[in-house]
Amino acid sequence: MKFTTRLQLSAMMFLEFFIWGAWFVTLGTFLINNLNASGSQTAAVFSTQSWGAIIAPFIIGLIADRYFNAEKIMGILHLLGAVLLYQVYHIGSVTNVYPPQVFYYLLVYMILFMPTLALVNSISFNQMTNTEKQFPPIRVWGTIGWIVAGLAISLVFLWDSSQSVKGGLMKNTFLLASIASLILGIFSFTLPKTPPKIAKGTEMKVSEVLGLDALKLLKDKNFLIFFIASILICIPLAFYYQYANLFLQDIGMKNPTAKMSLGQFFEIFFLLLLPFFFKKFGFKVTILAGMLAWAIRYALFAYGNAGDLTFMLIIGIILHGICYDFFFVSGQIYTDAKAGVKFKSAAQGLITLATYGIGMLIGFEIAGLIADAYKTGENTFDWKMIWIIPSIIAFIVFLLFAIFFNDKNEKPVDQTVKI
Predict the structure, then answer these.
(1) CATH 3.30.420.40 corresponds to the domain 1-195
(2) pTM (2 decimals)?
């Protein structure tokens, strides 16, 4: 791979996740503090990510894989996304009462954005001769982009300080994301050409587009248990995305968005530990560790504070690495091994549908209902109860998986994790 191509792909990854991290982390704070949204309204807005994840395969399977170059589609999607993000920024500038347009703008935006997560991978893979060695150093720039977005919001612009939040400056995160989306949209047209994977005129099978072939895997009892557990564990996960930033800001933690970036730093660290852990303990123990980490982190949030117990909150944030890597990455490896060559892509799509689609869609709704139930005043909440509930849910999922998943009947999974 040429050095210039490597730079292009790295910049693409950086901007892709910078855009997402620039507005998504602080979305709950923006909605509740700046637009006075209720828990249910906040849940509806967050659910746009799930709807985007559910609809994305249709866009990729029906359009991107058949008719147009991936880099051109991505350019168009990000240019349209820039307009939609600017519209949300504009709404935040003219009103402090939650308007329904926010939901519709972000719903359309996420339907456009989620397919780009697959497109950046396709564009990268198309330029590589050895994906196992060449992809990770490029993909890591996506994580760096997310981290830089959080640091910029917290340490450079100070938009998540108490004074800025009260002054309504959180809306500026959408302006920042809009500008970055505009840059990536234009930049995408300069990326290496990535033609459609499927030749025009090729017969289109609905089962392939929708990934229905992978449903055969659910006949396997252990995979079915894993599939259900994947949905259930994403219910407590939704609480973190929806309320962690608002919670940290509300209890007085300084630079909460920057501190939340520690989760991404340690995501990289625990990913390096995953091959050893996977080889030493196997799939079941690894994934149980990820589930248990969710229960522990929420318990730490419930009983920690921004004073003498700040360390509990920091540990809870750092645990994001175990929560994500030990569950999601391990699950992807297990799914890949179970699927076989023929159904690999469809199987990964099925798990994405279960987690970011169905699981988090349910989770966002439950998190909104819980927040409304434990609202103690105008934009104030009983955070202890809001975090105890997902902690209990995660622990129950942990116990159920430990009891019903029987790895003694499993064939050995290839435990080599390529970093």
Answers:
(1) no
(2) 0.90
